[in-house]
What we know:
6-stranded mixed sheet, 20 helices, 12% strand
Amino acid sequence: MPKSNSFYIIDGHAHIYRAYFAPFRDLTSPINNEPTKATYVFTQMLLNLIEQRKPDYLAMVIDSGDETVFRKEFFPQYKANRTPPPDDFHPQEQRILQIVKDAGVPIYAKPGFEADDLIATMARELCEQDFEVYLVSKDKDLRQLLTPCVHMYDVQTNEVIDERKLEEKVGYGPREAVEVQTLMGDNIDNVPGIPGVGEKTAAKLIKKYGTADAVLKHLDELTPKLRENFEKNAGNLAMARRLVTLKSDVDFDFSVEACRFTGLNNEALKPHFELLGFRNLLSRLGVEVDQAPSAAKPQAAVKPAAKYQPLAASESLFGDVSVPLSGHATPAVEGGPQTCADCKYTLIDTDEKFADFLAQLHKAKRFAFDTETDALGAMQGGLVGMSFSWEAGVGYYVPVKGPVGCEILDCDRVLREVKPILENAKIEKVGHNLKYDIQVMRQAGVHVRGVVMDTMMAAFLIDAGRLRYNINDLSLELLNFRKIDTAELIGKGKKQIRMDQVALERIATYA
């Protein structure tokens, strides 16, 4: 078989997650109000891939969504920290899978195994048949699969990563990838490693000594702190290696011929795009666009299925949740993750505290800022409180609404005092997803100016290959700080309460 036969394997849930969390405005269908942002972003990606690369063969691999993944059999804590996705994720996931299927692209999954294991198996079999294989992903877990005939492909940048380019980018090659991951571990996936060892340190150690086990024979050559971490956590290495090593012999119903790509099934895609209001995508397909969407379209919204089960496989939409930003190593932080107990937080609930807080805030030339509201939508949510920080490990929470009977400052007074500071463009503001907070404050009559950094946007710009850009994952991965999850505060489902019903002391620590 000639080398011109290219086989592209899409890391499905990785791309679905990245589409969902992409910093793109929320979209809904003009016909049935179905959420469509993730569907739109993913479909754009799929069309770009086909237009840019013109694959001879194309398939998508997804996680089975069950809790039977074999790694949990010998390590029950594996990925135990993963939180279920938001409610509007699952309907879009189902819509995307239907679009891919109707487009004529086979989808593979296998209960008990992760998507990466299926990808590893397909890559091995395809290489044996002399295909040129492209893994459409930036997931670091797939780096170990690169060979002269297996490459990684970033659809956003249209960049192909081969063995040589991988070495140039991260400082190690595919044959060293498992050992590097063994040393690093993974906080997000609960893979134990050596605390304080980030990607750069791990790469240097493996380059010098060859394997993680070999490093143990040269502990006297390490810094005192690093040596101590190795001595205390050497027992993690065997388990970490077992967890990060992909299986390449999974038995599943994979047909090469079924993946031969002869073009999109435009007629099957048209009803989806019309229902969802994707008029420009219809134009890209060369399909005639109706003048206006009709409410009488026969297609119905995808019905929400049973409660979505957390993904059991390696999630990495255009990348992976634990890939350091832009190839930069995650800062080495000694020991386990920091928590709120390591910081000093002050609840501003008296006139005296508020006066002292204002005096310090007036002196700050730059501060981090966040809001808490009693609803998820910025336009619907009422202001519950504001948090400020201008010093590492020190924060202040100013409540303006709280549980019945609690003592809080007058909301109008608080807004009157902080308004000149928040509206002063010369005082720099930093935050995460500040668009939301700016809208909340605008509803309260304050027009925030002087924004110099939005960490969510910065994370996307530095590494568009991340799976998620939420503050929980970023703080854990990059700062080794475990943030309180919102669900711990307000609960879930029918028992969920509002932020203004949470005890002030708890919300102050959270904020």
